[in-house]
C-alpha cells in the first residue's frame, strides 16, 4: 500500500474517533477590538454552511492572534478536533506539513485556509485552487467541515495556528505579491 493511502487511512480513523466524542463548544469570546465582526448567525453555523454561503475571497477571521483568550480556546479546539494528530501539538508538523512556517501550499489568506480545512485538499482543488507551495510531507488534507462544530470554532483554531507561526513576518498571511519590475529609465 502506498504511503498516501496509509496516511489517508490513519487520518480517516482519527477523524472517526474524534467525530464520536461529545462536542461541547467553549464559551464564545468577543472578537478583538477593531476586528471586522462576523454576523452572529454565521459564527454559529457549520463551517461547511459558511463556505457554501460565502463567495470566494470573502471569509475573514474576526479574531487576531494577540488575543490570548481566543488563542487558548483555539488550542483546545485544535486538540479536540484532532488537528494535532497530523500536524503536531503546536502545528510544527508530523505526518503532515507544519503549520508554523512560511510555506502556504494553497495560500495563507484567511479565506483559503478556512476553505482548505473545511473542504479538504481534494475538494478545494475541485473548486479551482492549485498548489502554490510545496512541503516535504505531502498528503491530502481531509475535510474537517463536519468535525469542527461551528464557524466560530474554526476561526479560533486558525487563530491558534497563526499564533504559532514562525516564518517570515511578510508571509504570515500568505506570500506577498511579487514586486513590480523597476521602471525602464533609459
Query: How many DSSP helices?
Result: 8
| Name given to the CATH homologous superfamily | Cytochrome c-like domain
How many strands, what sense, and barrel or not for the largest sheet? none
CATH architecture: Orthogonal Bundle
Shape: globular
Rg estimate, integer Å? 17 Å
Helix/strand class: mainly alpha
Q: What is the count of distinct domains? A: 1
Strand percentage lies at under 5%
Counted beta strands: 0
Average of the residue pLDDT scores: 77
Helix content: 40-55%
Architecture overview:
The protein is mainly alpha-helical and 186 residues long. The chain has one domain: Cytochrome c-like domain (Cytochrome Bc1 Complex, Chain D, domain 2, Orthogonal Bundle), CATH 1.10.760.10. Helix content is 41%, strand content 0%. The N and C termini lie far apart (61 Å).
What attributes does this structure have?
186 residues, mainly alpha, Cytochrome Bc1 Complex, Chain D, domain 2, 8 helices, 0% strand, disordered N terminus
Question: How are the elements arranged and paired?
Answer:
Blueprint: H1 3-19, H2 40-44, H3 47-53, H4 68-80, H5 83-87, H6 110-119, H7 121-126, H8 151-163
Helix pairs in contact: 4-8
Q: What's a quick, concise take on this entry?
A:
It is built from eight helices and no strands. By secondary structure, it is mostly helical.
Amino acid at each position: 500500500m502506498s504511503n498516501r493511502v496509509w496516511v489517508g487511512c490513519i487520518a480517516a480513523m482519527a477523524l472517526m474517533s474524534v467525530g464520536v466524542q461529545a462536542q461541547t463548544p467553549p464559551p464564545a469570546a468577543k472578537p478583538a477590538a477593531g476586528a471586522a465582526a462576523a454576523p452572529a448567525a454565521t459564527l454559529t453555523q457549520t463551517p461547511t454552511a459558511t463556505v457554501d454561503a460565502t463567495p470566494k475571497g470573502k471569509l475573514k477571521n474576526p479574531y487576531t492572534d494577540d488575543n490570548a483568550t481566543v488563542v487558548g480556546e483555539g488550542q483546545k479546539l485544535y486538540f479536540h478536533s484532532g488537528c494535532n494528530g497530523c500536524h503536531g501539538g503546536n502545528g510544527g508538523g508530523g505526518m503532515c506539513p507544519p503549520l508554523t512556517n512560511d510555506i502556504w501550499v494553497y495560500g495563507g489568506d484567511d479565506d483559503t485556509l478556512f476553505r482548505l480545512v473545511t473542504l479538504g485538499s481534494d475538494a478545494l482543488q475541485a473548486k479551482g485552487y492549485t498548489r502554490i507551495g510545496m512541503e516535504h510531507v505531502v498528503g491530502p488534507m481531509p475535510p474537517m467541515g463536519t468535525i469542527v462544530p461551528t464557524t466560530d470554532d474554526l476561526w479560533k483554531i486558525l487563530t491558534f495556528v497563526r499564533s504559532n507561526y514562525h516564518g517570515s513576518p511578510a508571509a504570515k498571511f500568505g506570500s506577498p505579491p511579487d514586486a513590480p519590475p523597476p521602471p525602464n529609465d533609459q
